[in-house]
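Sequence in, structure out. Go.
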Amino acid sequence: MTGTKPVKVLVLTIGNGINLLINFLTLPYLVRSLSYEDYGSYGQVLIVLSLLQGLWTFNLNQVANIFFARNDVDQRIVFSTLMRSALLLSLGGGLVMLASVPLISGSFDNPSLDRLLFLSVVNLIGQIPVPIIISVMIFSGKVKRLTAILILTNLVKVGMMFVAIQYFNSVEMLMIGLSIVSIMQVVVMYFNVSSEIRSLSYFDKKVAKEIFRVATPLAMTSIIERLVFYIDGIMISGMLSTTDYALYRAGAVELPFIASLYGSVAAVVLPEVARLFFNHQHGEIIRLKKKVISTTAFLVYPVLVYLLFFAEPIVSFYLSEKYIASTMVFAIFNLTLLIRINDYQDIIIVSGNTRFIFYTIIILTIVNIGLNYILISLFGIYGSAMAFILHLFLLASALMYKTTKLVHCKISDMFDFNVIGRIIFISLLLVTPVWLIYTFILHSVLLVILAGPLYLLLYFLFGIKAQLVDPALVSQMKGRIFRKKD
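Output:
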């Protein structure tokens, strides 16, 4: 990650991290203010919105990177064609959701979903173009402006949630508020796209045909991926109760900043991978990926270790004793951070091998449904979390195998297992004394909270001294962060 890429990653990570932090801090308020049934219904609406957004966005956000990286198409025409397509898809998605309301509420065996889904149609219409505009703004270098928009609109969303629950005591008002913010967000984002490419005047049929040709297998893959991500919640809702789903959803959270890091790195690196691949610079791609993976692991793994050691006090403090049954779900779910140090699809996507992703996910989705059915029957909500993790490991392995074939390398050429092993060893070495004190001397959540920053500070000092992260990257980031104003 050369040039300004580390800064883009830092800015986007901070921005996404703040957004996740806002949501992270909102969750305790929601679980304390809403009943199990209301919170479970709210979560089920979010499942439906996410699945439909994944379907109707049609993965145009990822395809946008490919077409903007090409020199043979005018970017203004590409953007206009993308946005006109997105508007049509938004209307189509809204109509389908409206027509599907009785079927969806019946599938979840939750009659209260009828009115909540109806009130969320506008939310879906607004959210479909958002990922596309985000990709365009990142590609155009408007990362800081994008980050500011995401933070501000998320704060407005939280304000709407607070008013709806605190003053109206109404989940219906909550859905109306979220719909208003959704429309506001997409309008503000659109008018902050670079004026050089911002237009709705063009619709090039040839470009549109090519965009949808590339996007079709990705879109099918995306909706299946989202379905996989929510299969656990769907099957828990079907096999168990709304209360069980509420307990599962409360525990299935990741830590802010850390959870956002993977997405931020992937968003910034994908355009660079596309450029390098089109220039046949496979060696540079391998070096870039290795540096990115090691750096992400350096930042993510120590946090994962701490979360696993202290899952119970963190969950009881964060969600209250009411949700103590969510502790194991929280611990299992955060094992996803083991894999989320790499974008396993980027090289496959830019190489045009999207059908491989599609067929792989189809096969593993069937496997995941079987795993969920068996493990939920045996272990309840914990079995679903186990199935989710097993599926992710299988998917990452299959995609990584294909990636190594495309750029003619070994897994060890991208994953520096020596560095990763040392990262885990230092993390375990530093967390063990805290765990011993907590277990045998001072059994207090306050110790866990106060010891966390000290643990991370010592880890980063040891890690940088041991050169677990690229020294050039550390120097560059120091220069960017601490540079003097002129």
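Check: Confidence is low (pLDDT under 50) at residues 480-486. DSSP finds 22 helices and no strands in the chain.
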